[in-house]
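Pipeline run #58 for the internal structure catalog. This entry was flagged by the ingest filter as a single-chain record with no existing model, so it goes straight to prediction. Upstream metadata was stripped on purpose; only the residue string is passed forward. Reviewer on rotation: M.T. Logging verbosity set to normal.
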Amino acid sequence: MLPNPTLDQLQVFLTVAETGSFSAASRALNRAQSVVSYTIANLEAQLEMPLFERSGARQPKLTEAGKAMLEDARRILGDLQVMRARVKSLREGLEAEVSVAISVMVPSRAVVDVLHEFRERFPSVSLNLNVGELGMVMDLVLNGKATIGIGGAVLKQDDSIITERIGHSFMLPVAAPDHALARLNRPLTLADVREEVQLVVTDASGRTKGRDFNVLSYKTWRVSDIATKHQLIKAGLGWGGLPAPVMHDDLRSGALVHLDLDAYEQGEYAIYSMRQIANPPGPAASWMIEAFRTRLSHCPNQADFHAEMAELRDTAPPLAAE
């Protein structure tokens, strides 16, 4: 017959191992020492192996089998604590899981900060995170795969969705430093970019089908996501617009350069929180929305960003023109 230790036996075993003696364990558990000894003896009988070496030692010492069982006991009791915390949270109305869709336009530092604090505040709440492009964030909220969405591209109002502006971001045209456009070393015209390959993200949601935003070149390469576009631009395979948070470090390091192109519309891009009216967020999701609102309110605006980039250009060595 397979052993079937009780949670109480495992707790007593763990306490004896951690306090170093049966007497200390009895005090910690507020039980008689004889009860602690009896519990351990029953556990050893069930497992058919000794957990402590008792002969010739003033204090009980774990056997090799005891050391192995100790890790299992810690894991099992740890899982029990997680379950108890989750039950307590559910009784208090806290969600078991928060599903959130976040746009790549949201600064990664804000995302990391919010999720780090979320983990500390809501340790019993699981997180399901999706990163979306363009209309995908709204789609994930509409189809119920995300409890809340943090992003932009509210291209069409939907009566079943509540949207609130909580911040902003913006796109800037960039290229690798050795790209032909970067080497012109002057403000660019529409004619300059017409024959250069422009990298463009295709909206998998279909919400922008038939609509192009800031597509200025006759030659376009279409990719599925911002991350791929980012890497291809850095590799010199084309130019294109990237969210400021995505390319910030590359601009500072010189891996990318900002293109001075008036024809490229560089207005601020609103970031919204989105949720279904029929599916109001619980305490954890509501906290997350407010946390993003707070973080995004402190993000630099476009003027500050351009000032920082201008300072970098003034201190950088000039590129050689072809």
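catalog note: The mean pLDDT is 83.
catalog note: DSSP finds eleven helices and eleven strands in the chain.
status: ready for reviewer M.T.
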